[in-house]
Amino acid sequence: MSKPQQPVHCELPYFPVADKQLQIGGHSVEQLAQRLGNTPFYAYDRAVIDQRIRALRTLLADSIRLHYAVKANPMPDLLQHVAQQVDGLDIASQGELALALQTDTDPQHISFTGPGKGEAELQAAIDAGVTLNIESATEMRRIAGLTSSRGIPPRVTVRINPDFELKSSGMRMGGGATPFGIDVEQVPALLKELADLGLEFWGFHIFAGSQNLRADAIIEAQNATLALAIRLAEHAPSPVRLLNMGGGFGIPYFPGEQPLDVKLIGENLTRLVEQAKTALPDAELALELGRYLVGEAGVYVCRVLDKKVSRGQVFLVTDGGLHQHLAASGNFGQVIRKNYPVVIGNKMGGDETEVVNIVGRLCTPLDLLASKMELPVTELGDLVVILQSGAYGLTTSPTAFLGHPAPMEILL
Ligand SMILES: *Cc1c(COP(=O)(O)O)cnc(C)c1O
């Protein structure tokens, strides 16, 4: 049998333990299960989100705008809570537009990004006064062909596919050939047409990658981003007002991964703010983060329904599974499957352990939540808790697959 994988956060920095029970937002996971009347569920702890945002702000120059990428976790209560603490929201659909407009965020500080925006959703966004992030020349012309009920031209930013990439990213979003943004070589001509079309140019957006844990790689990409924006500004019809530098800040999931050193990134951004003051004097710099703000604040909880032994291996069969937490099963873009950090929420620190596989109840071997993990000895009814589940959890999962009811979500 291969060596069991240990949870990353053995000391659980965010969630305390009392009486061997993992506590989320002041309640044990068993109490939460009772309160919700069922498992599985996702629970998000607002105190952990607040702590993360506060800590981040202390490391960033005051002038840096902090935006939240709604797709990381669009749960309405959570979005309301996060929106109160950030300077803007990034949305990717009309559905996310509706959610964002339910917050107090000024529509000008909502930016609509993503390839293939349709006419109806563009029209809704224009009428609401949100900033449109252009992904192609076709999209720019489509926007110009719509009329605004507001009597003013739509405000647009141009998303650039840069000629560099963010190294060691979990997910690369720019650099080579990609459906995202406009190749840097094509941008000067596009900017000329943009002016002729009468759209209000507001700035640039450059997002090079996601889930990065290396500060040096992020710093290199941010330096290149500012340099590129300065170069392209010469072709812009009006001064750059906003430079959205994307995000890419990762969180540790797997054994051996270390948290991102945001202090180094903050120090470098302070230098970039100074540089921008002379080179792009009208521009504000923005970061747009999803996972980093909310990923560590959430857990997914499911219950052990069956425990069986097959050819010497123990299987815990839970009422959860990949249909509710695709990423934990390793099927959301991961190249090699690794275990998310998992604990038994009602048996914290149990000293008698065993090596188990934790599965869901779907009829596919892909439905694996933990492989050969050493955990406290479990009984039927115990609560399996998957940590680091606050971002790209429920909404990235195929909940319709096999027809089980959707899990609940609660913000504490
Ligand atoms: C998904 C996305 C983000 C957020 O990415 P994280 O890795 O969650 O921080 C930011 N900007 C754009 C354009 C995105 O598509």
Ligands bound, unique: pyridoxal-5'-phosphate
CATH C-level class of the largest domain is: Alpha Beta
Which range best describes the helical content: under 10%, 10-25%, 25-40%, 40-55%, 55-70% or over 70%?
25-40%
How many helices? 10
Query: What would you call the structural class?
Result: alpha/beta
CATH superfamily of the largest domain: Alanine racemase
CATH architecture of the largest domain: Alpha-Beta Barrel
Integer count of domains? 2
Observed structural traits:
alpha/beta; binds pyridoxal-5'-phosphate; 412 residues; TIM Barrel; 10 helices; elongated; Lyase, Ornithine Decarboxylase, Chain A, domain 1
Polypeptide structure, described:
This protein has 412 residues and is of the alpha/beta class. It has 2 domains: 17-45 and 296-411, Lyase, Ornithine Decarboxylase, Chain A, domain 1; 74-289, Alpha-Beta Barrel (TIM Barrel), CATH 3.20.20.10. The protein contains 10 helices and 22 strands. It has helices spanning 29-36, 46-59, 76-83, 94-101, 119-128, 137-144, 187-196, 215-233, 262-279, 291-294; strands spanning 17-18, 21-24, 27-28, 41-44, 65-69, 88-91, 110-112, 131-134, 155-161, 171-172, 182-183, 200-205, 209-210, 242-244, 284-289, 298-310, 313-318, 342-344, 353-359, 368-376, 383-386, 408-411. The strands form 4 sheets. Strands 4, 16, 17, 18, 19, 20, 21 and 22 form an 8-stranded mixed beta sheet that branches. It has an 8-stranded parallel beta barrel with strand order 5-6-7-8-9-12-14-15, surrounded by 4 helices. Strands 1-2-3 form a 3-stranded antiparallel beta sheet. Helix 8 (215-233) runs parallel beside helix 9. The longest helix has 19 residues, at 215-233. The chain is elongated, with a radius of gyration of 23 Å. The protein binds pyridoxal-5'-phosphate (PLP).
